[in-house]
């Protein structure tokens, strides 16, 4: 990947001002995209004249070399004490004659931006904007392969859980077990905090697991994902605990499944972001659950969960091929529970078979 990272930095270098310009990247996912792994809080200085520099705080027990020290990689600067890597990067750029330095203003707090100007009085700062995030939207095949591996790990962990006894176990215990299984199968860790929701909690989008125990007749909603080589996926499934679901559970599940299928079928290069959201929203609205869908039907995934694009009713833009997204409609009925069905897919043209489904655990309403 070192050649890939170098090419990405060359792209960013070309965006720098021709007047001795430089850019400082500090958002963690963007730093990783441009150099590979880096210590938390690191900042990358990319200069038009070349000679990129990665500044950060390395663990004293670790060497700041490794893959980053390869030929063509950025020069490594290990900072002492509590020095701010962004401040150090901007100061270095100014010392070496950069006429202006582009920074990610959306990542810096107002207080940090003011401190930066005070610490480096000669700096002329401009806004890099979300240039790197925009570049990250379309994935190359190596990135998609990492996402595919993350999805395979996730499917395997979830499949194993479904083979175990669930009644009487707590949401919290099941979530911890799922995260352990992810790591056991090769994940770097969970892509996001695993959510297990049962009974009246089921179907809630942001539910944090509690000590509520799984009971017969419950809906059980599970949302998890693996992180593999930095890349993250999401899957969400809903099951019924017991021998057979109630009529209202079947009806609600069928509606959410139809909404999810409609949105998946709308994924195609050139499709409006809003059109994907509308496909799911119209199904739920026709069934009387339109207000239950959150602000978006899905969003991009990669080095982060919740990247661009956002598939929502006010989103502007069109999908491109090789863009991985989630499709995750859900309905929660207060006091009763609900359904969520989440998948990670890659947008592909119809000539290539249409959207590639990465998370393949069955979406049949299983009674466990």
UniProtKB/TrEMBL annotation:
Pfam families: Creatinase_N, Peptidase_M24. SUPFAM superfamilies: Creatinase/aminopeptidase (SSF55920), Creatinase/prolidase N-terminal domain (SSF53092). Residues 22-138 form the Creatinase N-terminal domain. InterPro entries: Creatin/AminoP/Spt16_N (IPR029149), Creatinase/aminopeptidase-like (IPR036005), Creatinase_N (IPR000587), Pept_M24 (IPR000994), Peptidase_M24B (IPR050659). Residues 146-348 form the Peptidase M24 domain. This is M24 family metallopeptidase.
